[in-house]
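#struct-pred
JK: can someone run the complex with guanine? inputs below
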Amino acid sequence: MAEAELIDGKAFAAGLRSKVADETAKLKAGHGITPTLAVVLVGSDPASQVYVKSKSKLAKKAGLNAIDKPMAETASEADVLAVVEELNNDPNVHGILVQLPVPKQINSNKILRTISPDKDVDGFHPVNVGLLTSGQMDQAFVPCTPLGCLLMLQDRLGDMSGARAVIIGRSNLVGRPLAALLLGENCTVTLTHSRTKNIAEECRRADILIAAVGVPEMVRGSWIKPGAVVIDVGINRVPGEGKGESEGAKPRLVGDVAFDEARLVASAITPVPGGVGPMTIACLLANTVRAACQLNGIAPPDWS
Ligand code: GUN
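RT: done, structure tokens with the ligand placed:
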């Protein structure tokens, strides 16, 4: 079999960001509205700082406003709730995102429940989760990483009716919402997790295999059905080849899928980096433009 085609998330995300920029320009010119995203970062986790910076940078590049709300590592739950309430009540803010994880003195579910569902561009509020899982996804803000996966799959496969989709990882961020989205596409969905018996066997049945588990290169080539489409959501830093990081070897990013093996079996696969990752922020910007439209009684854009 020929090597799998690469699904170029970087290019796909650039295309979506360009549509977001066009819609933003229309909102500004036609309605005097600049879609505005507020990002709350509590503490100074280095990975979160990198994500938040790139969210703001790409938002501004697409013509949106981005408001950063940095808060101290020692901020109390009440402090964060107060900031969220202030953003809920600010008519110039359309999207609110509290970067996860938050420090341990703060109950993340309580924070997520406080964000107005109409500004919940992460799609983590129980109202949006409920709309998605009850099949009303057109009414919901859908979490950005699963939405990015769905858009790439729709582009690649078109009609997915009857396809067997196997997801590894049952997180609220990716696995669970993605299961609901693929059910909406009429896939037969299997959601596997750490207690699943013989996970490799489950995976071998998949026409669409999605790994979102955070274990470097867990999915081996032998787990993949020939011709399957593989979406690798994992972003894992591992020491560079040869020497350890302490001896100066540059760490590399790998996915949850052993890429070199998988590429020989799958029909298409997302690389890491450059696959799902860039789609997450592009979808966040798309959700923010949608929020700005809905909050102002304007029909939201169709991104397809
Ligand atoms: N941390 C890792 N991914 C995400 C995400 O999509 N949204 C938020 N708020 N935090 C995250």
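RT: quick notes.
Residues 97-100, 122, 144-145, 173, 280 surround guanine (CB under 6 Å).
The chain has two domains: 31-117, 144-279.
JK: thanks, will look after standup
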